[in-house]
Q: What sequence folds into this?
C-alpha cells in the first residue's frame, strides 16, 4: 500500500512540473523580417513577421489572434495586430511607439507568446536567438511551403557540417593528394627537388674521381729557375 501511495505522489508531482515547450510539441516561433535600421518615437514603421509551428512550418489551424506586442519597463503594453500576407505563415503590421526600451513578443494564436527581442526607441531592434530547448528541436523546413519569399529560418541544430557549409559562399579547394591531404603541386615540387638532389649526388663522386685520376700538368723547371746576373 505504501508503494502505491508513493507512486501516486510521484505521478502528481510530475503532472505539476512545467514541461518544456519543445517536449510538449505545442509551440511556435515568431521570426521578424529585416527591420528598419533605426526607430524614432512617434513614427510609423511596417514590420513583417512569420509565425511557424515548431519553428519550421505554417500552422494548419486558425492563427488568431496574431501580431506583435510591445511592453515597456514601466508596465505599459501596446499590441499591433497582424494582417495575413500571401505567403503561408507570413504577416505584416504597422507600429508606432513612444521612446523607451520595449520587450517584443509574438502573439501566436493558440500558442504561447514568443519572446522576439528588445526594441530601443530611439534606437534599433535586437533579435534574441532561438532558445536552446527549441533550437535543439528544429528540423529542416519543407521548402514546398514557399517560393522566393520565405522566412529567415535559422540552421537547425541537427544540420551536418556539409549542410551548413553549403549555405556559405563556396571556395574551391586546391587539388589534393587523397592519401596525404597535401596539395598536388607541393608534391610535384618535392619530387622535382628530390630528383635534382639525386642527380647532383650521383655526379659528385664522378667529379671527385675524375679529379683524383687526372695527373698534374708537367712542371717546367726552367720556368722556376731564377738567374741573377752580376
A:
Amino acid at each position: 500500500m505504501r508503494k502505491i501511495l508513493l507512486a501516486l505522489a510521484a505521478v502528481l508531482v510530475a503532472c505539476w512540473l512545467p514541461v518544456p515547450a519543445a517536449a510538449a510539441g505545442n509551440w511556435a516561433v515568431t521570426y521578424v523580417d529585416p527591420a528598419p535600421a533605426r526607430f524614432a518615437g512617434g513614427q510609423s514603421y511596417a514590420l513583417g513577421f512569420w509565425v511557424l509551428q515548431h519553428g519550421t512550418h505554417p500552422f494548419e489551424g486558425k492563427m488568431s489572434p496574431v501580431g506583435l506586442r510591445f511592453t515597456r519597463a514601466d508596465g505599459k503594453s501596446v499590441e499591433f495586430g497582424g494582417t495575413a500576407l500571401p505567403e503561408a505563415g507570413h504577416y505584416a503590421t504597422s507600429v508606432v511607439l513612444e521612446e523607451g526600451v520595449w520587450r517584443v513578443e509574438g502573439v501566436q494564436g493558440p500558442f504561447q507568446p514568443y519572446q522576439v527581442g528588445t526594441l530601443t526607441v530611439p534606437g534599433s531592434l535586437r533579435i534574441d536567438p532561438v532558445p536552446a530547448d527549441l533550437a535543439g528541436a528544429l528540423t529542416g523546413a519543407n521548402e514546398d511551403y514557399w517560393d522566393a519569399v520565405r522566412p529567415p529560418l535559422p540552421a537547425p541544430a541537427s544540420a551536418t557540417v556539409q549542410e551548413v557549409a553549403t549555405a556559405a559562399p563556396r571556395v574551391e579547394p586546391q587539388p589534393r593528394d587523397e592519401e596525404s591531404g597535401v596539395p598536388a603541386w607541393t608534391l610535384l615540387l618535392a619530387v622535382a627537388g628530390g630528383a635534382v638532389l639525386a642527380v647532383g649526388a650521383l655526379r659528385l663522386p664522378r667529379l671527385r674521381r675524375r679529379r683524383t685520376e687526372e695527373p698534374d700538368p708537367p712542371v717546367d723547371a726552367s720556368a722556376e729557375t731564377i738567374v741573377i746576373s752580376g
